[in-house]
Amino acid sequence: MTDTATEPLDVTIAHRLQTALAPSHLAVSNDSAQHRGHMGDDGTGETHFSVDVVSNAFAGLNRVARQRLVNNALADLLSTRIHALAMRTRAPGE
């Protein structure tokens, strides 16, 4: 596992999702600047993120099941460092 204390959180998120889902497409966006001063902003500039993931792991799964896979891969970060995570989850060809 990557040392999350020494790299930007978007990089950690990308590493975790690559490992858990082997995506054919992955984009992680740090949206924290858009939420500066809002609820959940801890001043680190690393609290609000968006992910766009295309993975075979999502084939045949509904939206909630897909989001659970993402949440499971990032569980400890969601409980400690990530305040908000927007997700776009798709199977190949969608």
Structural class per helix/strand content?
alpha+beta
Biggest sheet layout: 3 strands, mixed
Number of E-type strands: 3
Contiguous low-pLDDT stretches (5 residues minimum) are: none
- What series of H and E elements makes up the topology? HEEHHE
Q: What is the mean predicted local confidence, pLDDT?
A: 89
Note the total helix count.
3
How large is the share of residues in beta strands? Answer: 15-25%
Overall, the morphology is elongated
The percent of residues in helical segments reads 25-40%
* Head-to-tail CA distance between termini: 30 Å
- In what order do the strands lie side by side in the largest sheet? 1-2-3
Radius of gyration: 13 Å
Describe the structure.
By secondary structure, this protein is of the alpha+beta class. 32% of the residues lie in helices and 21% in strands. The protein has 3 helices and 3 strands. The protein has helices spanning 9-21, 63-73, 75-80, and strands at 25-30, 48-54, 84-90. A 3-stranded mixed sheet has the order 1-2-3. The radius of gyration is 13 Å and the shape is elongated. It starts with 8 loop residues before the first helix and ends with a strand. The model has no long low-confidence stretch (mean pLDDT 89).
Tell me the layout of helices and strands:
Blueprint: H1 9-21, E1 25-30, E2 48-54, H2 63-73, H3 75-80, E3 84-90
Parallel strand pairs: 2-3
Antiparallel strand pairs: 1-2
